[in-house]
């Protein structure tokens, strides 16, 4: 025989159920009607033909700009070679890696203290950066001890508001991203100002390049920003915001950080189209279009200067070995990491192949050296969230030790 249920208990259950249903309905209505604070205005759609035409035009513009850059480099380096016959053309490449950018910021500090010799830190003709590497690239381009220390201090002192969820409706599909970044935007505002832009202009007056890569989400293509030119315009107009937006664009992790709309282009993280960017003066070239080929044509009696690429990867070269549980989320996250690392490794191998082809064509010697977070390094707290101060300081310390040691560099293709 069933026991009778007290009427008060029945009433409580009924009221609780009704309240839950009302709350669920209220949340559903709020979800449907609420305009989230993280929403960007809708954009006017373009048809496929228009987008394909724009992509082709942008690609040709980039090639023409690269050609002009190489011509300028040939002239400027020839003038330097007259004073210094042993001059080498050096490019620094800084990869993405999120909070692991603390490795590169520390490495640059240590590299400035390395002993004199062929692996000492040179003056760079060009510096490129992708994602967190793009955040570091302006300081590396300027290259002073104060700049190294200033950017490393930022990475060693992450703040709780660097990345924050967008509130209760962070998952709303109309949001531009799950999170907003008031702290990171504050750091960029303090880091990039008009006097800083003027210093970039001065440092690039000889033709040196500071390039930051983002990804055009519409065209599914990389977008290269000439930050010396952007800094020059900022100084002329007094408007520093476009230069700040470039740093936000290159690190706009899709879905997590909001994209940047720059001149009608919707831009997201540069890592999507290449975790390392080395299209300084070569990139997609046929025979006769490389720096060395142009040099031979212009100055056939002068030796072609050696080109050296220095690659600092703010990550492990390969995803760390680990035991993966057979659960969909674990497998999905693991697969994403493997894909990203494999893509970066393949791109680095491509750079080595380019250097070898350049030599075989008789277009001069190219050297490639790279460094990455060693697989033996482990974060102090493996379960800590991103932008953890202990993790980033540990990476900065590691970078400083490795940067000061010339033996840290790898000269062979991975």
Roughly what is the average pLDDT, rounded to an integer?
87
Largest sheet: 8 strands, mixed
* Alpha carbon gap, first and last residue: 76 Å
Number of strands: 10
Helical element count? 12
- Written as H for each helix and E for each strand, in order along the chain, the element string is HHEHEHHEEHHEEHHEEHEHEH
β-strand amount: 5-15%
Shape: globular
- Percentage of residues in helical conformation: 40-55%
Low-confidence stretches: 1-5, 7-15, 28-33
Rounded Rg: 25 Å
Return the structural class. Answer: alpha/beta
Description:
- The radius of gyration is 25 Å and the shape is globular.
- Helix 3 links the parallel strand 1 and strand 2 (126-130).
- Helix 2 packs across helix 10 (291-298).
- Helix content is 47%, strand content 13%.
- The model is unreliable at 1-5, 7-15 and 28-33 (pLDDT under 50).
- Strands 1, 2, 5, 6, 7, 8, 9 and 10 form an eight-stranded mixed sheet that branches. Strands 3-4 form a two-stranded antiparallel ribbon.
- By secondary structure, the chain is α/β, with parallel strands linked by helices.
- The chain has helices spanning 7-33, 48-83, 102-111, 132-142, 145-156, 182-191, 194-203, 227-237, 241-250, 291-298, 328-360, 389-403; strands at residues 89-94, 126-130, 164-165, 179-180, 209-216, 221-226, 260-262, 265-268, 307-316, 366-373.
């Amino acid at each position: 025989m069933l026991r009778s249920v007290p009427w008060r208990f029945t009433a409580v259950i009924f009221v609780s159920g009704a309240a839950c249903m009302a709350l669920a309905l209220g949340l559903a209505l709020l979800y449907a009607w609420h305009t989230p604070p993280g929403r960007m205005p809708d954009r006017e759609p373009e048809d496929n033909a228009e987008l394909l035409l724009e992509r082709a035009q942008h690609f040709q513009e980039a090639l023409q700009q690269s050609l002009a850059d190489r011509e300028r480099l040939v002239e400027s380096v020839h003038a330097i070679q007259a004073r210094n016959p042993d001059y080498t053309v050096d490019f620094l490449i800084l990869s993405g890696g999120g909070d692991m950018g603390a490795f590169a910021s520390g490495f640059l500090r240590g590299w400035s203290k390395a002993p004199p010799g062929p692996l000492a830190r040179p003056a760079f003709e060009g510096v490129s950066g992708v994602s967190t590497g793009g955040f570091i690239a302006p300081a590396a381009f300027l290259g002073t001890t104060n700049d190294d220390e200033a950017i490393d201090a930022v990475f060693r002192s992450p703040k709780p508001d660097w990345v924050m969820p967008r509130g209760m409706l962070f998952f709303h599909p109309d949001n531009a991203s799950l999170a907003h970044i008031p702290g990171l935007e504050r750091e960029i505002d303090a880091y990039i100002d008009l006097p800083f832009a003027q210093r970039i202009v001065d440092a690039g007056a000889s033709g040196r390049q500071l390039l930051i890569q983002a990804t055009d989400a519409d065209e599914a293509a990389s977008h290269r920003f000439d930050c010396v030119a952007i800094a020059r315009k900022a100084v002329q107009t007094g408007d520093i915001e476009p230069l700040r937006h470039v740093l936000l664009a290159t690190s706009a992790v899709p879905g997590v950080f909001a994209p940047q709309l720059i001149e009608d282009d919707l831009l997201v993280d540069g890592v999507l189209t290449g975790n390392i960017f080395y299209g300084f003066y070569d990139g997609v070239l046929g025979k006769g279009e490389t720096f060395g080929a142009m040099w031979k044509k212009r100055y056939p009696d002068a030796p072609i200067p050696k080109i050296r690429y220095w690659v600092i990867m703010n990550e492990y070269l390969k995803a760390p070995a680990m035991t993966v549980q057979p659960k969909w989320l674990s497998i999905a996250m693991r697969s994403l990491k493997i894909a990203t690392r494999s893509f970066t490794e393949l791109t680095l191998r491509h750079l080595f192949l380019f250097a070898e082809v350049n030599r075989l064509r008789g277009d001069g010697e190219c050297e490639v050296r790279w460094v990455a977070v060693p697989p033996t390094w482990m974060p102090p707290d493996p379960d800590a969230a991103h932008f953890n101060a202990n993790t980033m300081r540990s990476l900065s310390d590691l970078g400083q030790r490795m940067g000061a040691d010339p033996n840290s560099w790898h000269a062979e293709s991975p």
